[in-house]
User: What shape does this take?
Amino acid sequence: MITIGKRRYAGIVSRFVLAFLVAASATAFAAGSYPDRPVRLVVPYPPGGGNDVIARMLAPELAKTVGTQIVIDNRPGAGGTIGSNFVARAEPDGYTLLIINTLPHTAAAGLYKELPYDPVKDFEAIGMIGTVPYMLAVNSSVPAKTVGQFIALARAKPGAITYESAGIGSATHLAGEFFKSATGVNLLHVPYKGGGPGLSDLLSGHVQATFENVAVLTPYVQHGTLRGLVITSSKRSPLFPDLPTMAESGYPGFEVAGHFGLVAPRGTPAPVIAQLSQALDKALADPKLVKLLATQGVEAQPDTSAAFAALIQAESAKWLKVIKDAQIKAQ
Assistant: This one.
């Protein structure tokens, strides 16, 4: 007769029970029991911002395709890192998701010294929602009519041309630093506490330029208060088809855009990720949602979870380099 010590026996039983629960969980997911309750979609910013508006546009249609209610949960603070950390630490069961803009999401690792999560490794990519192009725009008093003329003007007067941003480490700041690095010009960065004050000073001529998304700039450029010089995303904006991209202007590889998508906590079962990815694709096939997103300057671009994961990694490498080279630290 073989005897087993009580402690060893208890350990064997514990491992058996754990293995059983894992297998049972996988079987349940495979059997299609997901979802059986509402799904929380965390927005790591206050209501009214880009992430929030896109999430609220997406939620009703996504609820139909997923088959359960999508509840928006705003968890703002610390440049989006509070909400992101909440999701990174959530149960990986498919019931807590995060909407991200890849630029600030990946840049956080370079801006915050003790970030409690990894923006790439601690999340599973579900899929992309769409892209918001960015634009270099100037106050109408600036004589430059093209990005080439703007660069020539900046080179002629190093440090004399100012550009505003929503603050140290913001997307608009990083876009400007990337532009400086790519073109070799010296612009003077003027940070503000949020996008509103900076835009106000740009409109009044206290600062001269900005690198902002087209959704924000469209009404001012259309009315001639600001002058758009170039689109910084990889392709032209449908809202401004006559504006060239940076690549078309002689700077291949330069791209600044807001790539919005959904992620889940690391370890979320693959069948659930696949189900959510398919549901997202189906939601974005609705012409009404595509048109609604377009009103915010968002070009719907559904893609596979693998493709979105690769994009997140590429964005991380790009923005961490920009931050390191410019020695930027969040305030």
Summary: The two ends are 68 Å apart (CA to CA). The beta strands are 39-43, 70-74, 96-101, 123-139, 162-165, 188-191, 209-213, 226-231, 257-265, 299-300.
